[in-house]
Amino acid sequence: MTRPKLQVALDILEFHRAAQIAREAVAGGADWIEVGTPLIKSEGMAAVRELREAFPDHEIVADMKIADTGTVEVEMAAKAGASIVCVLADADDTVIAESVRAARLYGVRIMADLINVADPVRRAQELEALGVDIVNAHVGIDQQMIGKSSVDLLRSIVGEVSIPLAVAGGLDASTAAQAVAAGADIVIVGGWIVKARDVEGSARTIRAALDDPTLVQPEKKSLDEEIRALLMTVSAPNVTDAMHRKGAMNGLVPLTGGVKAVGPAVTVQTFGGDWAKPVEAIDLCRPGDVLVINNDGRTEIAPWGELATHSAKNQGISGVVIDGAVRDVDDIRAMQYPLFARACVPNAGEAKGFGEINAEIACCGQQVRPGDWIIADESGVVVIPKERTYEIARRALEVKKMEDRVREEIERGSTLAQVQELYKWEKR
Ligand SMILES: O=C(CO)[C@H](O)[C@H](O)COP(=O)(O)O
């Protein structure tokens, strides 16, 4: 078996960053350099030209995602220096055939991208018959966020065609190893390398996984465990960014400092400091839940204090969020328990038993249903709709990775405006 190729996908908007990241990825073991679709849209063929100049001996893959005018687009990529040009597998056969003809004329290869193809096995066979050189089992970034797996797609086409198989879409060291074990000839990695703080190190880790897939053992986690692990890795700001700036609660203060709560919500509606339902709800929570309480917006009387916190901590509750006031903050702070409320007051209400547990409530400007996920840290509290928690957690991780890389570039001496080319991207 020949050594699988590692293709680094430069899905970055700014050419000056892409070139540097490519150098680091190559130093870490990347063989092929992909001029990603976002880079092509942002910088055009100049990006292909400059990368060809910078890397004369590497395969340069132009991810044009050609949907029409195959000849023109293959010709322009080839003349700019690409040695492999990507077409959409879903494009009409006439487009594929024209792309293949142009590729033969200009001495480049065609990679067809199976993104969103309804019958990948049949289409892969048709593409092979049309003269395509490489088929790419690709699950797109938006599809990855809802849990679609490129390795599963690859497995479905292995053995069905005899041309080389590439795989792309959300791959990390573990899934890249699985892809090679499944039969991938080319492993395409974007975010996991190009958004890493240490691009060279990440490329090296992937390279090692491709060279010996048995080194990497896949982790088995339930969906909830995976969501929790993702949300523990990211911050509340990463999550609101991933939600297009939605989901943040207003007016809450992290009262205990330096702590974080993540988990599905158990909701409580109470009134005027009545602490019966909040305290009864503790016993209904599972470890890892977050208790979210609406005290009817009242901040002069507390339905929560130190003893309730002890009980919540014993129960394994991840944290407590209160649209209202709390008391005993000094004791709770000493317990380092994640508590978020609107105010502190010394006086409590009475245990009357009004209100409801696990009904939809409003909390600091957001609707919260039982089972919606909460992430709460020093920056504040965000509610994530339960139907989209996995997707949002994945997207938040992408936000965090991008920020990690930008931070690294600032630490190397650039400025935030320079890294992000702010003037270029101002809205006109
Ligand atoms: O073509 C792409 C997106 O359309 C990407 O280049 C490809 O998915 C690889 O990037 P990542 O590893 O971040 O998914």
From TrEMBL:
User: Which SUPFAM superfamilies does the annotation name?
Assistant: Ribulose-phoshate binding barrel, RraA-like
Which reactions is this enzyme annotated as catalysing?
D-ribulose 5-phosphate + formaldehyde = D-arabino-hex-3-ulose 6-phosphate
Presence of keyword Lyase: yes
Enzyme group, top EC level?
lyase
Keywords from the UniProt entry: Carbohydrate metabolism, Lyase
**EC number of this enzyme:** 4.1.2.43
Please name the InterPro entries in this protein's record. 3-hexulose-6-phosphate_synth (IPR017553), Aldolase_TIM (IPR013785), Bifunct_HPS/DMK_prd (IPR017120), HPS/KGPDC (IPR041710), OMPdeCOase_dom (IPR001754), RibuloseP-bd_barrel (IPR011060), RraA/RraA-like (IPR005493), RraA/RraA-like_sf (IPR036704)
A GO BP term here is: 'de novo' pyrimidine nucleobase biosynthetic process
Enumerate the GO terms in the molecular function aspect.
Answer: 3-dehydro-L-gulonate-6-phosphate decarboxylase activity; hexulose-6-phosphate synthase activity; orotidine-5'-phosphate decarboxylase activity
**Which domain of life does the UniProt lineage start with?**
Archaea
Keyword Ubl conjugation present in the record's keywords: the answer is no
Q: Which residues form the Orotidine 5'-phosphate decarboxylase domain?
A: 5-206
Per the similarity annotation, which family is this? Belongs to the HPS/KGPDC family. HPS subfamily.
What name is this protein filed under? Answer: 3-hexulose-6-phosphate synthase
- Source organism (scientific name): Methanofollis formosanus
